[in-house]
Amino acid sequence: MQERLSYRTGEDPAGDAPGQRARPRWAARRVFPLIASAGLLLMGMFTTTVGTSLVGRKEWGLPYDLWGTLIATTRLAHGNIGGVYAPGTGLISLPGAAVILLPCAALISALGLSLAIPGPANLHPALWLVAGPYQIALCCVTLFAADALAEQLGVQFWKRGLLAAASAGILWSVSARWGHPEDAVAVGLLLYAILAQSRARPGAAGWLAGAAVCVQPLVLLALPVLLALLPWRRMVPFLIRAALPSAVLLGATAIANWHDTYTAVASQPDSPVINHPTAWTSLAPQLAGQNVAAGPFRLATIVLACLAALAIRRRWQARTEWQDSAAGARWPAALLTDVLWWVALALALRSFFEPVMVSYYPWPPIAVALIPAATLSWPRLLAAAVLAGGLTAAAQGPSHAVWVWWVPIVAGLVVLLLLSRPGRAGSSVPLVPVSEPGI
Predict the structure, then answer these.
(1) The pTM is what?
(2) CA distances from 107 to 68, 70, 77, 280, 366 (A)
(3) 242 with 260: CB under 8 angstroms?
């Protein structure tokens, strides 16, 4: 008990003066996400280039989805704001998805690299040698955010190593396989927003959440959970910060090109022929080219997340931890773990109710669910990590049959959420230190 009290007050147990205790350097504290990021970068570039020749393919196995976003980003880098949603990009996310790739677009333009789509006439595009490492490294922000939260929760050192390894393994699908760094960056920013709010910094949390929404609006599903922790008087400032980045960027693109912006953002077309249909596909509005509109279903899912957050708020209001957090105190470990689990469940609603699924859609709830799983016993963490890898591999399957692809994925997500569910008595999380360890 004396050692724990000393840690809380900043005194060294050996008797050093307060505030003299040396903290590990950032690289030492983030050694596992650094190693995992390097491994993901090497594995991602290997599997997309040299690795394809080992299975007899002449063409590199590149994420075609990235090319449309790169075209939008390059247009934006040249000042063509109206071209972000114009034909040729296929972008349906908010403009932040293009903004995060601007440094890469500047380098592409400086080197004079072609934006030609990979194919029989473009087997080994040099563009990938620049864009690939950049976007894979960008995706790794999630690894550092997850490790920062695990550190805040007091997760054991080697459990953080397993968390980083498992998180990097499932991140391959989003980065190297499908080329959607906006999903990873948005989830990473969302996790940092949760970390900031847990440290009684609602202003920073609001701006981070706003940046996350602007990059990929899927995180809107999780914002009601964060709002449930705030007193009513703080909700409006939080919502203003969360909405402002998207409003500014989306307003600029709408002024420059209203028709294409509205069509892409409002309807969000998706193809059940190319991607995976679900039980809700037949209920979605039909569009041209055998596409369906995913936008209305996504709005309905956000409403469902808001209703769930209201129920969660009523449940939390009876807890002393919620009352302390509403008064501006830092969250204890039990509350932070609970919030992360509910965020994972909220993000899973996308997979539960999406009219058309793509193989990387299950990744956000899987990535977040692994963090509360790391606070539990070794067997449960190992089981969650193995299941996370299995779900990621299964999601890459080609089947378009609802019962063969979508139903097992949904069932697997439910099992993962049950495995990672924190228990009041079963958690191995110690007391959260008061000193702020940073990120």
Answers:
(1) 0.90
(2) 17, 12, 10, 42, 33
(3) no
Indicate if the alpha-carbon torsion angle 223, 229, 230, 231 is positive or negative.
positive
The CA distance from 219 to 397, in Å, is: 25
Residue type, 112: G
pLDDT tens digit sequence for 174-193: 999 999 999 999 999 999 99
Q: Extract the tokens encoding 130.
A: 């620049």
Element housing 173 (H / E): none
Round to whole Å and give the CA distance between 258 and 85: 9
CA proximity to 137, closest of 12, 44, 244 = 44
Is the pLDDT confidence value at 224 over 90? yes
Kind of pairing between the strands at 276-277 and 292-293: unpaired
Unique residue bearing structure tokens 């075209």:
71
Which residues pair with residue 292 across a beta bridge? 270, 286
CA 240 from centroid of its chain's CA atoms: 22
For residue 26, the Cα-to-chain-centroid distance in whole angstroms is 22
The closest alpha carbon to 216, from 181, 192, 258, 168, belongs to 181
Residue in 148, 162, 154 with CA at minimum distance from that of residue 378: 162
Contacts of 219 (CB under 8 A, 6+ apart): 186, 187, 189, 190, 209, 212, 213, 347, 364
Residues in Cβ contact with 378 at an 8 Å cutoff, skipping those fewer than 6 apart: 159
